[in-house]
Amino acid sequence: MIDKKELKNIMESLPSDVRLVAVSKFKPNQDILDAYGLGIMDFGENRPQELKKKMEELPTDIRWHFIGHLQTNKIKMIIDNVHLIHSVDSEKLLDSINKEAKKRSRVVDCLLQVYIATEESKQGLTNQEVLKLVQQRESYGNVRICGLMGMASFSEEKEKVSGEFASLKKLFDKVRMENPEMASYFKELSMGMSGDYALAIEQGSTIVRIGSLIFGDRNSFTSL
Ligand SMILES: *Cc1c(COP(=O)(O)O)cnc(C)c1O
User: Fold this and answer.
1) What is the number of structural domains in the chain?
2) What is the b/e burial string over 86-113, where b = at least 16 CB atoms within 10 angstroms of the residue's CB?
3) Which pLDDT tens digit goes with each residue over 14-27?
């Protein structure tokens, strides 16, 4: 069951230049169809197997966003129908996506995931690694680096969370400033989830990834 009222609230309250990705991981197809019926076209998933299945079963005009850690051997499962991969967290992964995309004569849109939280468990690249990959972008002819993604610390301290988002925005601006030729496509800043999306928007987010507010709490034991 989705929370239609909450979804409508979110849709109405988002600034027109901020895109909503409804994070439907662990949720059944019917929930996705309910949100789709209300006009949501962008859905986020974090497990390749689950995304592949949903891609096969659900309307083909859905834009699928991959937002989780992606193992190189799973790229094949999602690459043909993925709209945007938010979570490129290593050079090796970027390389492998590029190779798979090349085999298909495609260009795949990706975001670089940056480590901004103070929590050990969150994944991502350092600022230096981001700048290095951006420098090397000419060697990846089949991926387009469209921006950055980050997850803030899970914390009640608004200043801390805002500060982490601000640091990601700063890096985003630096890349744009130093690489003006990227300006036409390096445009996306994917930050903000159910608990912190308002803070992320204040700091310049262009894509928010919202799951539990729309779909309710996740229960990994729910069968698909
Ligand atoms: C699950 C997830 C979300 C959504 O989280 P909610 O708190 O349920 O809104 C956003 N981004 C990523 C990377 C996720 O894994």
Assistant:
1) 1
2) bbbbbeebbbbbbebbeeeeeebbbbbb
3) 999 999 999 999 99
